């Protein structure tokens, strides 16, 4: 009888544990999102529209800003540059993605790896390399009628910086194809060009627009490339950076930040609307598309891929080489003098160590928080209103540029009456800001993996009276380990290369490597900036390869169920 009486208490404890895990976890996640995403954005609008002394100046100051000739010049420069970059990057990325997904060119893993190089370095690195290639004393200076500083310098630098971002979107879109549609088109006598217009393009045009919006937003809000090769060609993002860092005009920075937020919000809204109208690319009966051999087609696309990769290798190879040259261009002997960061201004090895700490903390803490939050939203029942609020807040960072988010953190966490002011200038705040900045992409990765799991997993756990948190740790995490490792890798690399959001938040003790690159370039130490950028590049690449290699054993053990049975 005693054993019978203890059963309800055990069941009750399990239910209470599940309720604490689900409801408590969602409330904690909501609190974190509110502090890390919502309140900083509200602080920007408060600072920009506040008419109090020392604030944004209210509507009067906003009207004066948007009606001034200087603002019109800056806005025109930003729009012209961003549209030019997007018009160049998206077609090139589409051709590159098409070559990888729809042709039979050789060495695809190599080309794909080379195309992702710009993701491993801060946005200033392409600009620094262009200075050594086409600057006043550049290696290829004679190829240009004018120097690289100005509009074309910004465009070329941003094209290199944003290319892999557009490529990843288009690779994902072109990877989805139903072979039955192409077989039907071929049997009806349609040419490859006609099949492309009728099948491929309608299925990928939404991704093309998404890539265009992403490249446009990244370019209009980036100040890393303009600060290196912009010269007299000023843009809005650089003006916001100078207003806050150089001139301490926080109100003007807030107003420009709100202006920079508008194109991102418009692009995000239109993209979301198109996604809702866009149907599923593949049905459950779809057959995997395998391209047919074609020497002429493959040769043309291979030439395009090789040319693009050659340009990337030239740019990044030049950056690495310049970091080893003793004194450009007068003494081209190789030396490691530029890597003696303690002898130069900019942050030294402290900045590199801080970036490693930031990357490790952001990757480990962020991956746990984001994956757990996605699990609670996707795989638990009840709290529909709470789930909706969490989803909305999780998608907000996608529409908020890093520069604007960083400004919001300054205005919110630097308030004297804010009890969270104690975190301002600390590594903790940098970690929070970095996780919030890259939250949406990681969240979408986790959500995609979780949605592939059948709901019967959780139903079986409930029927067996097993605590949900135990099921999450022992079943869900091992099954979704590949996606979780992708999130860790993404957050680590992003934290190593971030500069836009962190530029306003560091202190002398928490300066980051990417910020040190900017400071050394401003001080005229271009060789030191190239050396620090190269160090970031090799660190990001090495850790990514090491993580991929180290994860194989873990994947083999935890994903044995994916392997084919003997004899099959």
Description:
This protein has 568 residues and is mainly alpha-helical. The chain has 2 domains: 14-58 and 342-558, Orthogonal Bundle (MetI-like fold); 68-177 and 204-270 and 303-326, MetI-like (MetI-like fold, Orthogonal Bundle), CATH 1.10.3720. Helices cover 72% and strands 1% of the residues. The protein has a two-stranded antiparallel ribbon. The model is unreliable at 1-10, 280-286 and 564-568 (pLDDT under 50).
User: How are helices and strands ordered from N to C?
Assistant: HHHHHHHHHHHHEEHHHHHHHHHH
What percent of residues are in strands? Answer: under 5%
CATH architectural group of the largest domain:
Orthogonal Bundle
**Class of the largest domain, according to the CATH hierarchy?**
Mainly Alpha
Shape: globular
**Average predicted local confidence, pLDDT:** 81
CATH superfamily of the largest domain: MetI-like
**Helix-and-strand structural type:** mainly alpha
Please give the alpha-carbon distance between the first and last residues: 51 Å
Arrangement of strands in the largest sheet: 1-2
């Amino acid at each position: 009888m005693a054993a019978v009486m203890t059963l309800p208490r055990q069941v009750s404890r399990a239910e209470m544990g599940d309720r604490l895990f689900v409801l408590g976890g969602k409330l904690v996640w909501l609190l974190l999102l509110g502090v890390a995403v919502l309140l900083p954005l509200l602080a920007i609008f408060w600072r920009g529209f506040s008419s109090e002394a020392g604030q944004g100046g209210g509507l009067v100051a906003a009207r004066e800003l948007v009606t001034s000739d200087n603002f019109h010049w800056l806005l025109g420069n930003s729009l012209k540059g961003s549209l030019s970059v997007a018009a160049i990057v998206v077609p090139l990325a589409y051709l590159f993605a098409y070559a990888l997904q729809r042709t039979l060119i050789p060495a695809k893993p190599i080309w794909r790896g080379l195309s992702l190089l710009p993701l491993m370095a801060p946005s200033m690195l392409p600009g620094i390399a262009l200075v050594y290639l086409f600057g006043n004393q550049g290696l290829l200076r004679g190829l240009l009628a004018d120097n690289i500083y100005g509009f074309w310098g910004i465009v070329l630098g941003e094209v290199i910086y944003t290319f892999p971002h557009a490529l990843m979107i288009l690779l994902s879109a072109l990877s989805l194809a139903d072979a039955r549609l192409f077989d039907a088109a071929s049997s009806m006598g349609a040419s490859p060009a006609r099949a492309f217009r009728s099948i491929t393009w309608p299925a990928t045009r939404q991704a093309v627009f998404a890539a265009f919006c992403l490249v446009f937003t990244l370019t209009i809000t980036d100040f890393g490339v303009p600060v290196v090769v912009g010269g007299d060609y000023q843009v809005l993002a650089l003006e916001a950076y100078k207003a806050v860092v150089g001139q301490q005009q926080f109100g003007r920075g807030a107003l420009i930040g709100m202006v920079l937020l508008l194109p991102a919000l418009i692009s995000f809204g239109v993209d979301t609307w198109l996604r809702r109208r866009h149907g599923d690319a593949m049905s459950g009966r779809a057959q995997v598309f395998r391209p047919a051999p074609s020497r002429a087609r493959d040769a043309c696309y291979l030439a395009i891929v090789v040319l693009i990769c050659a340009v990337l290798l030239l740019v990044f190879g030049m950056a690495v080489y310049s970091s080893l040259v003793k004194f450009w261009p007068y003494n081209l002997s190789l030396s490691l003098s530029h890597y003696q960061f303690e002898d130069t201004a900019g942050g030294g090895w402290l900045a590199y160590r801080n970036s490693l700490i930031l990357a490790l903390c952001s990757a480990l803490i962020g991956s746990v928080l984001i994956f757990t939050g996605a699990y609670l939203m996707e795989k638990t029942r009840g709290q529909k209103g709470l789930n909706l609020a969490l989803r909305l807040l999780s998608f907000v960072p996608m529409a908020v540029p890093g520069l604007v988010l960083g400004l919001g953190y300054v205005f919110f966490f630097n308030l004297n009456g804010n009890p969270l002011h104690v975190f301002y200038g600390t590594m903790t705040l940098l970690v929070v800001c970095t996780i919030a900045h890259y939250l949406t992409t990681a969240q979408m990765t986790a959500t995609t993996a979780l949605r592939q799991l059948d709901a019967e997993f959780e139903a079986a756990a409930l029927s067996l009276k097993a605590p949900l948190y135990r099921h999450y740790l022992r079943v869900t995490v091992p099954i979704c380990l590949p996606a979780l490792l992708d999130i860790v890798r993404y957050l680590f690399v992003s934290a190593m290369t971030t500069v836009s959001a962190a530029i306003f938040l560091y202190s002398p003790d928490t300066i980051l490597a990417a910020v040190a690159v900017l400071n050394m370039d401003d001080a005229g130490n271009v060789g030191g900036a190239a050396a620090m950028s190269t160090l970031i590049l090799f660190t990001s690449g090495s850790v990514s390869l090491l993580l991929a290699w180290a994860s194989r054993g873990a994947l083999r053990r935890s994903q044995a169920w994916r392997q084919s049975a003997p004899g099959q």
